[in-house]
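Sorry to interrupt, but I need a hand with the structure work. It will help me judge whether the discrete encoding reads sensibly. Write everything out right here, beneath this request:
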Amino acid sequence: MMVTFGICFGIGYLIDRKFGTHWIFLFIVLGILSGYRAVYLLIKKHIKGRDEDEPEDWVKKAFDVDDEDQTR
């Protein structure tokens, strides 16, 4: 999220310095929106990839869960 904001801020800042405009505000808004979109897609991908029936690897290792234990 911060990377997209930083890139857009940098582009806006450079355009402002070169041309003397006030485009930085537009690029800040675009950076914030693109950062939120990136985080949203990451969370959506993580939730979609989870299989609720299968315990995660750390659960299996921590509690020695076997496939037989899941049927109970």
User: Anything to note?
Assistant: The mean pLDDT is 81. The longest helix spans residues 24-49. The two ends are 43 Å apart (CA to CA).
